[in-house]
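Sat 14:20. Reprocessing the chain from the morning session after the first attempt stalled halfway. Input below, unchanged.
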Amino acid sequence: METEIKIYQSCRKNLLLFLCCMLFAVGGVYMIIDEDESCRFVIKFIVGRLSVIFFGGGGLFLGVTTLYKTKKRIPYLIIYDDRVEQYVQFTAA
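Finished this time. Tokens:
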């Protein structure tokens, strides 16, 4: 008889990481719309927009995949007696 152990990702940790990413994205939005001349326009434009794109997009992706895996009960690792299987989100078919 083959036994298996399923290991799931921590929903709380992933949602906390999602929240932190969204806070950085909001900081980027604030940096873009800030009217105060505390930093140069180039810095405001590049850093603000890259912050929104990187942290906003990454945070949304992380939040959606976390909720999807939690709802579908998809394990991150499955440990068998003789092998270990890892879930891959995107596979080239």
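The chain has a mean pLDDT of 87.
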